[in-house]
Design goal:
This protein is mainly alpha-helical and 68 residues long. Helix content is 66%, strand content 0%. Helix 1 packs antiparallel against helix 2.
C-alpha cells in the first residue's frame, strides 16, 4: 500500500487543506488571508524540503550548501 501513489504529495496536501478550508467555511468558521496562504503553500514547502533536505540526508548524499 505504501508503494501506491495517487499523485504528488504537494498536490494531495493542497487538496486536503482546501477541503478542510471549505468545510470550515460551510460550518461558519472565520477564514482569513493567512489561512488561504497556508492552505496553498504548506504542501509545496514540505515537498521541497523533503526532496532537497530529508531524502539526501537519509540516503547519505550531500545536502546543498544553502540548506545546511
Amino acid at each position: 500500500m505504501a508503494d501506491r501513489k495517487i499523485g504528488k504529495f504537494k498536490y494531495c496536501r493542497i487538496a486536503i487543506d482546501l477541503t478542510c478550508l471549505i468545510a470550515g467555511i460551510l460550518t461558519g468558521g472565520e477564514i482569513g488571508i493567512a489561512t488561504v496562504i497556508i492552505a496553498l503553500t504548506v504542501g509545496p514547502l514540505i515537498q521541497y524540503f523533503r526532496t532537497n533536505l530529508a531524502e539526501p540526508f537519509l540516503e547519505g548524499r550531500k545536502i546543498p550548501a544553502f540548506l545546511s
